[in-house]
Request: fold
Amino acid sequence: MRRGFALLNIVLLLLVLASCASNPYSKTNRVYKKQAKAYTKQLSKFPLPEKSDGSALDYGEYRVGTTNFNLRKPNYVVIHHTAQDSVQQTLKTFTLSRTQVSSHYVIGREGEVYHMLNDYFRGWHAGVGKWGNNSDLNSSSIGIELDNNGSEEFSEAQIQSLLAVLESLKEDYKIPAENFVGHSDIAPGRKVDPNATFPWERLAEEGYGLWYNEEEVKSLKTEAEFFRPNPLAIGRNSILTQRISFLDKILFPEVIPATFDVEMALRIIGFDTSNMAAALQSFKLHFIQEDIQSPLNEDDLKILYNLYQKYL
Reply:
């Protein structure tokens, strides 16, 4: 009988060891569960203590908890690339306490999805950044890291998995289309992810982010293009100093005014314009995806104008 119990104990021990060996993150998973349990305990505490003579606050006579509440929910999604060599390296980075970085989701090159953090918990992925008036994106967003070294193209399997995750998040939390952004969008000059090969237009077609309308952009003209010098002009202020062809009026019904404020347009889209050069680069990285370092040309300006109208 004793021999049988001893054999059973050995078998159970081997099963436990095999279970631990099959998941290299068993140890850090236990840390996750411990921390989640601590936060759950903290949330379950009654919000206010009973009235106490030793309290500095003038509490009411009774403990009264409202019956109308729920969990806070994320309202933004921030997409990153890992800038690391493999998904295994990223998983290790996010399970080391000393790194102080994390993300809710990590998606590998083969499309494998690692859901590393409950969506309601605050991840440490956005860092210092701003989008519109929101200067604490970690507190209101979900972070998604795509396994990518920073310069390569994203695999089709990876994008397919990303779209599936985004569909779930948009449905669960009713996140507006314009609130799907990149790390470089919220941190101009500091971050450049996801890189210029990221398919933002494709995502926008699925309802995750906004994109410009190509036909509308083609029909736009700047004032410099629209108004042409008249060779018959007499004097600088003459009504004849400018002429507009009737064909232009038909083909280009909308003209970008010379007073169009580029900085204001960028701010309306959401960019932090405290560093205009960085904001312009982040805009071009997301919406132009070429000649990132170059100033805005006329085509870029038309795209910005079209987007500015969409974000109004």
Q: What stands out?
A: The chain is about 40% helix and 10% strand. The chain has two domains: 76-205, 214-311. Residues 214-311 form one domain. The two ends are 79 Å apart (CA to CA).
